[in-house]
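Recall that a protein's primary structure is simply its ordered list of amino acids. Everything else, from secondary elements to tertiary packing, is in principle encoded there. The following example makes that idea concrete.
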Amino acid sequence: MDSSLFCRDARLVQCGSNKAAIAKTYAIALLYVNQELNAMAYKIFNHILNTVQDKLVSLTISKEWFNSWNKQSSSENAFSRKTKLSLQNVFWLIVSRIVQTLPVSLSSFFSQLNLPAPTKSAFSMKRKLIKSSLFEEVNKTLVKEFYSSDNRFTTWKGHVILACDGSRIALPNVAELGENFGYYHTYQGEVLYPCAKAAIFQDTLNGVTVLAKLEEKDTDERRTFEENFLEANNLAGGKTIMTIDRGYFSYLLMYLMIKDKQLFVMKARNTKWRSEFVSSGKKDDIIEVFPSRATAIYRNRQWNMTRDKKLTLRLVRFDHPDGSVDVLVTNIFDKHLATCNEVIDLYRMRWPAETAYGVYKNDMALELFSSFRKDGVLQDFYAAIIMYNLASIMAHDCKRLPKGKKINMSVAVGVIHILCPVFTGFLSGTVTRFRIRSDMEYLSHCLTEVRPGRSFERLRRKRKTSGKFYRHLNFSLSV
């Protein structure tokens, strides 16, 4: 066994290569694992991790999630034989985020497993066999298990708060990606770089990305929401409230959510009935809206079959400290469930969906993709979602935190990055449990303050085409 680093109480203990030191280290690890840690649950994260491992084993024997070597051969046995490039090893290597050059990443990952690093070409060939849908499926399994397992995740009056938000994702400057996802260009028509549109359904109280999509740059965010909000609701347990920004405002979207009994709070755009409500000076009101035939709602077949073509909505006035006024639209008519002020508080709860992109892009370097293929880019995207969710669940599983404090997500994703080789199952169960528990103990001390009411002005910047974060010039691609 090479010099393995175990983290305990935020101190690094290095075990030597001689047998006596190894035996002593394992004895300490076993003793530590068997102790009852009242400070943290641990069981939730361990259960979720076991669920992911079982899912990977079940997917290995299915042809649905793999490509073929070529048109004449099959990939049926590509991951069934014993090899260091097993599905588990390749999966967790991609989840750990390949942001360095590929040889360095391979050497770093496999050295922790006490295995020689495979070649770049061997890894690339194996990676091409895996469809990106496998990563998406694993994330859905992870999320579904989190909400269905016996754990006390945070809710608001029994409801999970989901917020949908979109963001532009810069891709490697490769023609294939530009053809598949589209190019970002200036208003003057200058084509800059390939770009995609990301959309996430974020559980803002538990920090879990319930559902995520990476689509073409010009994809309508409202269409993405319309096609996926029911699935997001089901993954989160079926009892949710959607908090939605004004960019998603649509009569069709409101009609679909009302029809499917999906509770929502949405910021209204400037309309005639909105202006009338603001002028009335009321704080709370219920109105009937009659959409015109020029709106997209009339392209919906079920709406056209409806006799009374009207939407019954509740409006809530939202006064800002600077004197400006916003209007929130909701279908929560029961004031015992949500008063006027509680509707405003619900909308404010969507802020973590915005900050989640900060973790993805800054702490996890989401835009440093390790592939120039479309399927490889999607693999990296869903792998980042899995890493983020594991970090959130680990933070959720730590001991009770002081009031006004929360786990530092930057440290949490770093811990998951370090633990990915441990998750492969190659190391013994005792060592695995020791590493996870000790790192969770360390993470429970990495706190940051909760700062409510934060807001930042959106800055429009032209992305630099050179520098540290320009993948095409500064990093070698893994595929």
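The two ends are 31 Å apart (CA to CA). The longest strand covers residues 191-203.
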